[in-house]
Amino acid sequence: AFRAPSPAELPELGPTDVSQDPLDRLRHARGQALPDLVRLRTGTVARLPDAVARPRAADEIEALLAAASEAGVRVVPWGGGTSVTGGVTPPPGDAPVLTLDLERLAGLHALDEVSGLATFGAGTLGPALEAALADAYGGRGATLGHFPQSFELSTLGGWIAAASSGQESLGNGRVADLVAGVSAVAPAGRIEIPPLPPSAGGPDLRRLWVGSEGRFGVIHRAAVRVRPRPETLRVEAVLMRGFEPALDGVRRLVREGVPLALLRLSDEPETQVAMTVGLAKSRFGALARGWLALRGVAHDAALLLLGAAGDEAEVEETLERARSVLRPLAPVWLGASPGRTWQRDRFRHPYLRDALLDDGVSTETLETAAPWSRLVPVADAVRAALRAGRADDEHELPVLCHLSHAYLDGASLYFTYFWRTPADADAAVERWADLKRRASDAIAAVGAATSHHHGVGSYHAPWLEAEIGAGGLRTLDAVARAHDPRGVLSPHVLLDPVDRLGAQ
Amino acid sequence: AFRAPSPAELPELGPTDVSQDPLDRLRHARGQALPDLVRLRTGTVARLPDAVARPRAADEIEALLAAASEAGVRVVPWGGGTSVTGGVTPPPGDAPVLTLDLERLAGLHALDEVSGLATFGAGTLGPALEAALADAYGGRGATLGHFPQSFELSTLGGWIAAASSGQESLGNGRVADLVAGVSAVAPAGRIEIPPLPPSAGGPDLRRLWVGSEGRFGVIHRAAVRVRPRPETLRVEAVLMRGFEPALDGVRRLVREGVPLALLRLSDEPETQVAMTVGLAKSRFGALARGWLALRGVAHDAALLLLGAAGDEAEVEETLERARSVLRPLAPVWLGASPGRTWQRDRFRHPYLRDALLDDGVSTETLETAAPWSRLVPVADAVRAALRAGRADDEHELPVLCHLSHAYLDGASLYFTYFWRTPADADAAVERWADLKRRASDAIAAVGAATSHHHGVGSYHAPWLEAEIGAGGLRTLDAVARAHDPRGVLSPHVLLDPVDRLGAQ
Predict the structure, then answer these.
(1) Of A39, B210, B327, B369, which has fewest CB within 10 angstroms of its CB?
(2) Which residue in chain A has the smallest CA separation from B494?
(3) What pairing do the DSSP bridges indicate for beta strands B142-143 and B179-186?
(4) CB pairs under 8 A between A and B
(5) CB A462 within 8 A of CB A498
(6) Which of B164, B9, B31 is nearest to B490 (CA)?
């Protein structure tokens, strides 16, 4: 049975429900990165929050933050707990830790259909958010269209705090583009950024809350840009002849302005895995392989998924434009069937990690972004860094890669890698930490982004200066101090450069 | 002859060229708002910078800022001097003022055609910037596509500092969307934000420099997102039946994602002026008027300009989609001829102010932004506030309005208004100030944006808190102090809420 360490004494926290139940504390102790899984599966979670508070209103957050600031209690805002960067883990040190679960600050507050603006509580989960918009526009429904892989478990406030991107951000924009207004509470006072279209009223402060990771204040409400729900999303699969040549095709799709909803290009190893898994399920697996071999694509194939949203005519027109742009690269069009499989499983992949751990295999993901001209060197550097972390008893360390988001000036790269899990929990975490350090060092050395959509949290904080420089850290530190003079809010994320990966 | 006040003594400023020539100081004393014109035309410019420095490199800016900080000299960065918000006027007070003209930090430093990234000195003027891109892409040319009305006289650094929008920002994005990297020098140190596609490496600090108005540091270089130059830009004119009904059509164009390059909708009074001026030039003016009357559009006509960019086929396809979306509103299509007139004159309108002043008429413009659902009340409130400022000897105070930029969730409104110029220069400025206060009060009262693309500067600073709240001011103040601890950089802009309109 789980025996939680005794919680610290807490000051009087006002009218908010505060739980010190051991299981509640345990459920709020870790995020969703590999070390979180390892610690939870092996019963070796060392630090728990001392209490979990569930505020019902901004006033209650205000009282909680005032009491915490006064008493030096550290406060960790909690949305869905799906951070993969140590963002929701209790900060190290002796100070008591209070986790603020925002689940009671959920739901739709206002919907302006004419402007396409919806105001939600920050604790609203993805599916609840979309459900609340289902009756808009005379029953057609509205959508925010933000579908990160964590969609089922994560919240609007968490998406904003972590600068999230979703699977359809190519068409709908990243969360940074979708946020029109932010309401937050900080120890130094309230923040109300009204939902306005782009303004020249000084720097756009919305953007400072996107990626703020709970460091500046607790986001409790946000106004987001919604749109009428498209009739359909069709995802088609294409086999391209090699990852590198296909990058050029993807770049052209973006530059030509083909209005795709999503786009994802796997490298050759990831394509092999997808085809092995996908075709194994098919009655015609062997035939399909033979057909592809005849078309001259096999081991160099790079799987490209293209999604278009709208009514049937719009979808067909968009995909036809995509076909026309890609034609010179002689792709093999596989149609909508693999796309349907992807759509069915789009939020499921993270759950595979448990099954793999049962088999003694660890897996983790990481992502970065870079300009088009440096994308291949960045991919090569990260692959090489991870492979160099191969243990003596491993034949190889498999690294899969895909381009997950494309922009006019560059794209993001998403890596999935696998290794044999050491039997001891501490050793399993240390191995994970070693690989993460190698990849992060490589990313910093080639000048790519610290993260494209997972965020900085605690795990990437040692490498943030490589991206934003001393001037960038000075900026963020000043903002944090202005809103949180005593530094009680998530002091371990974003601005704490100590490498604590091994101690996770 | 102009007799400049004697300049203050300045400390040793290092190796930079520093001029104390009276005419040089005068040319750097004022921006381009109406009181600037009045003061320059009447020889009543009261305050001049004490010197104008022209740094050639970031090192020189560093030395200048160190010396200025040490001696308490105020520093005003100067791009093209086209501020209409008092942003380049010497700050009030007794401290000496040094204006930093960035004209020698101009030109293209690097061009990455694959990524579509170009790095320029901040002092690069609009035409020079576009000219430097003319040979890219095998002679086809690249474009930034940023064309504010001040294009011919303003600089890249100024566009970033003032959060500029251009006439084709609908298609190409605002300057906020175009900036990929920023290099700046502040008294506390350098800032280097590398050109990366969207990242989750904390809040997007690029956005903090967009709209920074010289308050946080001196932007000396920037990397911007460029694209292949479109073959053609075609602007067509449409007469809609009333401004309010037409707003709905414009909103649909944006929501349907019709990829227009530009879009501008004039209200009925502005349309009357445009048609009077435009048709007066036409040999067929009377015929055209008769024809329009037959079609049932006359005094309720609202002129809509639609621009599409690309090759001929793309342009035609985009405009055909626009026609299809607008068809239910029964517009009258006028074709490309009025659009060509607009394209020819697109940067000329500000020069008309001088001719009007010669005739004893003052004119000024102001702009704001609001969600679609509040656009009409905002327009009405601003019109009413300005009209209420009519003087006893004026029959009416004409106010023209157009929608200048449209977004998914709202749009900007741009007002042009006219009044009889009082003979005395101080009275002329006081009259201008009275109207500006009335409009700014009205905008703040209805919760619209302080500014859509002119910026805050000194003139709008008293109203900024109405938009971003005490929490927003606290944020910006913290950033300013972190980069400029002694407050020497443009202390009168953005964060100084004192109303000095009457003293301009």
Answers:
(1) B327
(2) A202
(3) unpaired
(4) 287
(5) yes
(6) B31
Q: Give whole-number Cα distances, B417 to B269, B383, B398, in Å.
A: 11, 9, 6
DSSP SS3 for A226:
coil
B358: closest CA of chain A, how far (Å): 32
User: In the structure encoding, which two tokens stand for residue B92, read together?
Assistant: 């009030």
Cβ separation of A409 and B203 shorter than 8 Å?
A: no
Nearest 5°: phi and psi at A502? Answer: -70, -20
What does the DSSP 8-state code read for residue B350? G
| Residue-wise DSSP of B382-440 | HHHHHHTT--TT-S---EEEEEEEE-SSEEEEEEEEEEEPPSSHHHHHHHHHHHHHHHH
Amino acid at A41: R
Is residue A294 very low, low, confident or very high in pLDDT (cuts 50, 70, 90)? low
Report the C-alpha gap between A456 and B204 in whole angstroms. Answer: 12
Q: Which two tokens stand for residue B214?
A: 């010289």
Q: Could you report the per-residue pLDDT of B203-260, keeping only the tens digit for each?
A: 999 999 999 999 999 999 999 999 999 999 999 999 999 999 999 999 999 999 999 9
Neighbours of A359 (CB within 10 A): 8
Assess contact for B335 and B138: CB atoms under 8 A: no
Residues from chain A contacting residue B228 (CB–CB below 8 Å): 255
| CA B465 remoteness from chain centre | 21
As a whole number, mean pLDDT of residues B393-400 equals 94
pLDDT in tens, A459-491: 999 999 999 999 999 999 999 999 999 999 999
Q: A409, A440, A490: which to substitute to probe chain B, counting the most B Cβ within 10 Å? A: A409
Judged by average pLDDT, the poorest of A202-211, B115-124, B279-288, B388-397 is: B279-288
CA–CA min distance B211, chain A (Å):
4
Structure tokens at A391: 């243990």
- Quote the tokens at residue A113: 């259909």
Of the candidate ranges A270-284, B61-75, B100-114, B238-252, the one whose mean pLDDT is the lowest:
A270-284
Length of chain A: 504
To which H or E segment does residue B66 belong?
A: helix B58-71
Find where tokens 């490496």 sit.
B201
With CA atoms as reference, report the closest residue to A243 among A385, A397, A380, A417.
Answer: A380
Strands B74-78 and B97-101 turn out to be parallel
* Closest alpha carbon within chain A to B190: A471
CA A489, A493, A497, A500 torsion-angle sign: positive
pLDDT for B344: 87
pLDDT score, position A1: 57
Contact between A222 and A120 under an 8 Å Cβ cutoff? The reply is yes
Q: How many residues does chain B have?
A: 504
Contact A90, A40 (CB under 8 A): no
Which pLDDT score is estimated for B5?
A: 85
pLDDT single digits (tens) B48-91? 999 999 999 999 999 999 999 999 999 999 999 999 999 999 99
Query: Nearest-CA residue of chain B relative to A160?
Result: B203
Interface test with A, best of B144, B182, B220, B409 (most A CBs within 10 A): B409
Do residues B39 and B45 lie in contact, with contact meaning Cβ atoms separated by under 8 Å? yes
What's the gap in Å between the CA of A451 and the closest CA on chain B?
5
